[in-house]
Amino acid sequence: KLGHPSELPPEPVPNYEADEEFLRRLHHVLLEVEVLEGSLQCPDSGRRFPISKGVPNMLLTEDEA
Amino acid sequence: GPAPAQEGAELAAVIGATVPTGFEQTAAEEVQEKLGSASRISRDRGKIYFEVPARSLPQVHRLRSVDNLFVVVQEFKDYQFKENKEDALKDLEDLVKKLPWTDPLKVWELNNSLKKKKTKRKKHNLQSPASREKLNDGGEEGGADQNNTNDQEDCAQNPVAVEPSGGQDTEKSQGVTSRNGVEEEEEDNEQSDVKAEVQANSESGTKAGDSQPGEGEAKVLRFRVTCNRAGDKHSFTSNEAARDFGGAVQEHFQWKADMTNFDVEVLLNIHNNEVVVGIALTEESLHRRNITHFGPTTLRSTLAYGMLRLCDPQPTDIIVDPMCGTGAIPIEGAAEWPHCYHIAGDNNPQAVKRAANNICSLLRKNESKDSTALGIPLDIIQWDICNLPLRTGSVDIVVTDMPFGKRIGSKKKNWDLYPACLMEMGRICAPGTGRAVLLTQDKKCFAKALSRVGHIWRRAQTVWVNVGGLHAAVYLLRRTWERAEESRSFW
């Protein structure tokens, strides 16, 4: 989803704690990649939350709250 | 001939440090941890004392729980003040020549050379609310002494004047000449007009610390005396003490008195019968170190550090500040506990923007220091404290500065907000192991809210603090083992 589909598996593989290569890529995505513009999508509802200048806006609307 | 003795290695220093009142114990722990020295906590609140070899000065400056540092010249645990004002002041004057200045001055010199080595960071002009906040954090003293408060306020003005401008300085020196009061002596100098001299100093761009002592040059040091006095049995004011003590210092060392461009700041701290004479090692308070973009209520980094330490973060802990404002707490957290993951959030777009800018500044600072370090374990999100987009029980620590009724929002709003906050913070926090550290001025509202969520939060410790002149409290809460409701209406 972040443009690194070929590097990360869709789900953590069993015993991922011992897989150094996986951990390295995960660390990179978590700590070194910053989404500046884009969105986060809720896996259940599909509702998108915009990301602007690196900051996601997760405020709910009046109806949602 | 033989190589000169390594003075720096043998020289020891007794350091006095000012810390946010209430966090003396925390600061003492940090000193023990990082310097291996035990501290004494003085009865004069907000100060701790410890001894270190002078070569440890760089580490002393890296302490995160201290606001200001000074080297102790001498401490008197039980000084007997004469009842008569003239006698009491004369005693203080006579004291000067008897004090062991030599080693403390060596420490001061060493400290100066350290300051010069540091690359000059761009200093942002500190606005007066920030300086007032810093100074009022000195805390209230027992004795009803109007002058004491005035002196603390006077004290504020000087450190703030980083870029001295002609007009401002003149005004300030006129306001505080009584404290160091050697105006009469100044007129004996080459320049007959005191005002002109002060202006000349500031306009010529002479900065404090620029003058090099020794080196064969008979460079005259500039100094000022700052006196803080508390107690109701003294026959004199801090102004008078500073003036007379300053006069004796001037006489003894033949230094030049200068309120604004001084090299040596002599501290005379009088707390009832406890007298401490020291020499300042910090020019401006260290507590604004992380923040370049201030908000109206930005928390001191030293206070943020103290709060974080209180919850004893462990490596891999997830630490959330759900009402982060300009981000003082999560930024301090990410800097000092890089093995934890810090998440900051606020609903206010201005706050979020400022916090994001502060984080960028930190990233840029990291980049310039170490080219390999890229990320910081810190993220910022705009969210609603009552509907946090975080899974139940997924967070280890919640730490935040709750909105104060008087400074942001209103007391009525807090009445409704506090219980809702505590519930949501309870939901995201891990049962049993989770903890929260919350700063609030609205203690009544907080106590009431807490009583309603006793099944989720237990009060473990309370620290009484002073924030911007207001009495506040920091509560350490522990999450009970009871699980929060799993079903969530939205998330």
Automatic annotation (TrEMBL), chain A:
Q: Which Gene3D superfamilies match?
A: 2.20.25.10
- Residues folding into a coiled coil are none
Provide the transmembrane region boundaries: none
Q: Which GO terms describe its molecular function?
A: protein heterodimerization activity
**Pfam families hit by this protein:** Trm112p
InterPro entries, A to Z? Trm112, Trm112-like
Q: Domain of life of the organism in this record?
A: Eukaryota
Q: Could you tell me the Gene Ontology terms of the biological process aspect for this record?
A: rRNA (guanine-N7)-methylation; tRNA methylation
Family, similarity comment: Belongs to the TRM112 family.
Q: What is this protein called?
A: Multifunctional methyltransferase subunit TRM112-like protein
User: Which lineage is the organism of this entry classified under, starting from the top rank?
Assistant: Eukaryota, Metazoa, Chordata, Craniata, Vertebrata
TrEMBL record, chain B:
What does the record list as GO biological process? tRNA methylation
Among Gene3D superfamilies, the record links this protein to: 3.30.2130.30, Vaccinia Virus protein VP39
Which CDD domains would you find in this protein's record?
Answer: THUMP_AdoMetMT
List the PROSITE patterns hit by this protein, alphabetically: THUMP (PS51165), UPF0020 (PS01261)
The uppermost taxa in this organism's lineage are: Eukaryota, Metazoa, Chordata, Craniata, Vertebrata
From the UniProt entry, list the residue stretches annotated as the region Disordered: 116-216
- One Pfam annotation, family name? THUMP
Family label: Belongs to the methyltransferase superfamily.
Q: Which GO terms describe its cellular component?
A: cytoplasm; tRNA methyltransferase complex
Query: What protein am I looking at?
Result: THUM3 protein
Q: Where is the composition biased (Basic residues)?
A: 116-125
The gene designation is Thumpd3
Q: What is its main location?
A: cytoplasm
Give every THUMP domain span.
164-281
Q: Where in the cell is it found?
A: Cytoplasm
Molecular-function GO terms, alphabetical? RNA binding; tRNA (guanine) methyltransferase activity
Q: Give the keywords, sorted.
A: Cytoplasm, Methyltransferase, RNA-binding, Transferase, tRNA processing
